[in-house]
């Protein structure tokens, strides 16, 4: 725990400093900032997360993520901190002005509670299969061509795992920490609680409902937050974008402008590089693009377009170098002919497996089964608490329809910022359902949509039959979400009792250790698990599946040359 709290303090300083530097750079380019004047703490931290993820993606193409990469990052952070010293001074000044000093004790308890969960517990299944190994590839080599041939999962190429490698600190400590998910959870939970303090004073509680979503997500994933799972980092970034967007659209921030929204859209692009399932969040770009095009602001259009490309381009380049495909696993985009390219037949099978596993069919021959046939199977496989989450979304859809109908009847002006937010979240849910409906793949959207509906309903408005009907729908949404939360609350309580005696109060529990066997690949040993598919971190180079390694070969005499299909 203590080790993680120290790491998070350091991460806060580095991420916030980098974020300040990025924001100040934008303000210097534009001269006039069309947005909130004051630089806030968490937006600066999350801007830093996005910037550092992009930096690691670029650096890893040329060299491993070790001491050199981290020291260069630290130098950039120091320069940014010096350039933004007035912002740091403003933050500390506001902390001193805080009248309720006990609130800092609460924030400390939230951080310590998160550290308790993040220091011990269960390793996420996919962490054992490929997350841990992918982080080690970042640490040892940065990138090798055709790595996806050794194991297809490496071709998923999440930029978030690069971010995790940047703060694994193996180069310094001799062992790899995995505290980035816990860091994001601690920061965003404290941010959410701090925002909820003004609940009673606001005319609109749209953002407060979304802040509650951050806390619900933390409750749901507490037991696995120790793992550097890509799902968690992606969902937290999605939730941050949604909460911040609602905060701006709800009028909580005076002077909110197009620059605030445009920066969030860059974060949305970054979420897509963390995990492709977040891709439709980029629909948010429609609003700032419309404002800037209408205003003929060519400078801002160009700068933000370049920013989006700067985040996306290194991810796409890594895709091609790791797999030979621009977007993996999407075989339709067949643009490159390189010797390390993963065969199209493997890509098609991998893509189909993701879909049929999500639909609980577990047979790739059923990939073309129509929705009316696979949906009942998928629904029947859901536990009761999961069904309640889905039912909360269905009730929210009814509330949304009633709200739209009421607005049309009263000829109320549509708020484009809120409309784009609702449509983006709804599009994310629809894409999740039709592509790969694992609950964890779309949980941020599944929590956001019902809470958006309830948050809109909470606005003070005159009662009428439609609003009363929407109120009943909102009660149904809250009831379903409470049932869903109660399952995880009780589980977390029991989990806490079971892990109180774990020896992780000083140092974080390490990755799982597993028994391995080896196979020879061009004179080099490649490890694979003796049983199951958990290869974890310590054995290297390794694959969770021997058959994948057997159908691959080295491109040269060393690992640095990469892998190719046989």
Please give a structural write-up:
The chain is mainly alpha-helical and 566 residues long. Helices cover 64% and strands 3% of the residues. The protein folds into three domains: 1-86 and 106-342 and 382-511, no CATH class; 344-374; 516-555, no CATH class. The chain has a two-stranded antiparallel sheet with strand order 1-2. Strands 3-4 form a two-stranded antiparallel sheet. A hairpin with an 8-residue loop joins strand 3 (552-554) and strand 4 (563-565). The mean pLDDT is 94.
Question: Topology, please?
Answer:
Elements: H1 2-30, H2 41-62, H3 67-83, H4 85-97, H5 102-118, H6 125-140, H7 147-150, H8 159-166, H9 170-173, H10 180-196, H11 206-221, H12 230-249, H13 258-274, H14 286-294, H15 298-323, H16 344-358, H17 371-380, H18 384-409, H19 416-435, H20 443-457, H21 465-499, E1 516-521, E2 524-529, H22 546-550, E3 552-554, E4 563-565
Antiparallel strand pairs: 1-2, 3-4
Helix pairs in contact: 1-2, 1-3, 2-8, 2-13, 2-15, 5-10, 6-8, 10-11, 10-12, 11-12, 11-20, 11-21, 12-13, 12-19, 12-20, 13-14, 13-15, 18-20, 18-21, 19-20, 20-21
